[in-house]
Amino acid sequence: MVMSEVATPGRVFRRDFPLAQLIGFQIVSQADGKAVAELQAGPQHANPMGTLHGGVLCDIADSAMGFAFGSTLQPDESFTTLELKINFHRPVWDAFLRAEAEVVTRGRTVGMVTCKVADEKGRLIASATSTCLVLSGEAAKNR
Questions:
Q1: What number of other Cβ atoms are within 10 A of residue 19's Cβ?
Q2: d(CA 21, CA 87)
Q3: 5-140 has which fold?
Q4: Would you report the helix, strand and coil content of the chain in percent, each value rounded to 5?
Q5: Domain spans of the chain, in order of start
Q6: pLDDT in 10s for each residue of the chain, 143 residues
Q7: How many whole angstroms separate alpha carbon 140 and alpha carbon 30?
Q8: Any bridge partners for residue 68, and if so which?
């Protein structure tokens, strides 16, 4: 396996996927229904007010949750997100961010994942939840 890939029970996900490269974050771990993404946020991630754009926080949380949920998949399964919710708790300018995601429930067809994004001082920056739909058989092909 290449260093930029993450193994799941039957799936391999590339850690260096295009969105991660564009924004500059990394998936640093994925196993057993958990995953972690990290980002050094800076001025290149700012919104018009100069703080970190909420979409960037959403991207790292969504990716961490996707990798966490992906670690629960069987070889013939894929998934799609049905719902994503994020709450922003404090502004960020320049900070090292860590998004820690964990699968809360995983049924045969639906699961729920949570994520907390904190800065290097451990302060909660954002929290998110995601509802995922498991796809299998024909629905999972090419996904």
A1: 11
A2: 24
A3: Thiol Ester Dehydrase; Chain A (3.10.129)
A4: 20, 50, 30
A5: 5-140
A6: 334 555 555 455 677 788 999 999 999 999 999 999 999 999 999 999 999 999 999 999 999 999 999 999 998 899 999 999 999 999 999 999 999 999 999 999 999 999 999 999 999 999 999 999 999 877 767 66
A7: 21
A8: none
**DSSP 3-state of 109:** coil
Strand, coil or helix: 140: helix
DSSP 31-64: ETTEEEEEEEE-GGGB-TTSSBPHHHHHHHHHHH
Nearest 5°: CA angle at 132, between 90 and 98? Answer: 35
Q: Which two tokens stand for residue 98?
A: 């860590």
Torsion of the alpha carbons at 70, 73, 75 and 80, rounded to the nearest 10: -60
- Taking residue 51's Cβ as centre, other Cβ atoms within 10 Å add up to 15
Kindly state the tokens that stand for 140. 């999972």
